[in-house]
Design goal:
This protein has 404 residues and is α+β, with helices and mostly antiparallel strands. The protein is 42% helix and 20% strand. It contains eleven helices and 16 strands. Helix 6 packs antiparallel against helix 7 and helix 7 packs across helix 10.
């Protein structure tokens, strides 16, 4: 199995400048390759440029510009070109499926924050000596940078990436490991129902409160964004010191909220994995749930639109994004795989409208957001608990139908 590690880097002033130059030069390579593809398609009779063709030009590019492109790792530049190729592959896939395509865009220096090294030892080297208290990672053109290794890396390091987050630098490793020993069996199974009022309700009647990190930080974020809006739009190199501090303040607040969501998701998922052998959850289409409502044109008045509930839907969308369901489910699946637990996704339709006692399904069974009252047998319970119980039963039926 593949596990990812992320450690804080401690570069010197010169190393910090070299890392910034590396990002800038890889960003220029990305944008230049994108421009070549656009020009070839528009002006050379719709000719398609592939990754292989652009990768073959790297040797000439490095020889032509040794100061900017020649000093960096050849494999990392190939990874940057591969990154662009993946963007085009995703674009054509969306075109074929009828989705919103989203043509690959040029990247500004502030929007290009990662450089990948496909193989440890090729342009980079993770140097973690057991008897050396200081861990270093070497990048071609930068040198040996100190890393704050807060936990041991087990397995063989496969890829290395350097990432910028605000003023901080991180190294991200992927290591190939043997399948770990599964946790001891508990004999417990559980179904979970994700929500807004409560982050999670389980089939045993338990609840995990929704921390609402984004809402709690909204006042500070609003003040910081208002302060930033007073400065005119300009390039990063033309910003004043006050403008840079305003940008960093907004980024710092958003980063704190993101880390709080991740911490909550990790702790909640770990508790579920440790306590239960099987976890069933709703296979929610989060992107569809957080979509803005379509406009409603007035048939009697041209260029006039009827109310479509966009304001209230925007509030619900913010709450869904603040809960971070997608991140939590991704972490839950990863932790379950590592612990030898089973995670089952089930169809979410009617899970909160079906009575767990008599099986009657009706919209009227859920008169309010929290209350469930079956109009057929009179069963009463919390609506989220009923939903989690129905999710568990559907998950067990699916597991029995697919014993493999």
């Amino acid at each position: 199995m593949i596990r990812t590690y992320k450690f804080l880097l401690r570069p010197t002033v010169r190393q910090d400048q070299a890392l910034r130059e590396m990002l800038q030069d890889h960003c220029s390579l990305y944008n230049g390759a994108l421009q070549e593809r656009r020009d070839a398609y528009r002006h050379v009779s719709k000719t398609s440029v592939t990754y292989g063709m652009q990768s073959a030009q790297l040797k000439e590019i490095r020889a032509f510009d040794p100061e900017r492109q020649g000093r960096w790792s050849f494999s990392s530049q190939q990874a940057t070109l591969r990154r662009l190729d993946k963007a085009f592959t995703a674009f054509f896939r969306r075109v074929k499926t009828g989705e919103t395509p989203g043509y690959p865009r040029f990247r500004g220096v502030n929007w290009f924050d990662t450089v990948d090294f496909p193989k440890d030892g090729d342009g980079c080297r993770w140097d973690s000596t057991p008897h050396d208290p200081v861990t270093r990672v070497r990048f071609q053109g930068v040198g040996h940078v100190k890393a704050n290794q807060h936990r041991p890396v087990t397995g063989k390091v496969k890829t290395v990436s350097v990432k910028r987050e605000g003023r901080k630098w991180f190294v991200v490793l992927t290591a190939e490991q043997a399948q770990p020993e599964p946790l001891p069996a508990t004999g417990s199974v559980v179904g979970i129902d994700l929500g807004i009022a409560n982050f999670l309700a389980d089939s045993n009647g338990g609840f995990v409160p929704n921390p609402r990190h984004g809402r709690k930080a909204s006042a500070k974020l609003e003040a910081a964004q208002q302060a930033l809006s007073r400065f005119p739009r300009c390039k990063a190199k033309d910003r004043t010191a006050n403008h840079r501090r305003a940008v960093e303040k907004v980024a710092e607040l958003h980063g704190k909220v993101r880390r709080q969501r991740l911490d909550h998701a990790h702790k909640t998922a770990l508790a579920l994995v440790r306590e239960h052998d099987v976890v069933a959850y709703e296979d929610l289409k989060i992107r569809n749930m957080s979509r803005s409502p379509a406009p409603k044109p007035d048939p009697d008045k041209p260029a006039v639109f009827l109310p479509n509930g966009a304001a209230s839907k925007a509030g619900l969308n913010r709450s869904i994004a603040d809960a971070g369901w997608g991140v939590f489910l991704t972490i839950l699946v990863a932790k379950a795989e590592s612990a030898g637990r089973e995670v089952i996704a089930v169809d979410p339709r009617n899970t909160s409208r079906r009575c767990p006692e008599c099986g009657h399904t009706a919209k009227e069974n859920r008169p309010t957001q929290e209350k469930f009252h079956c109009v057929s047998c009179g069963h009463t319970a919390h609506a989220d608990t009923v939903g989690a119980l129905n999710v568990l039963r559907a998950g067990l039926v699916r597991r029995d139908a697919n014993p493999a």
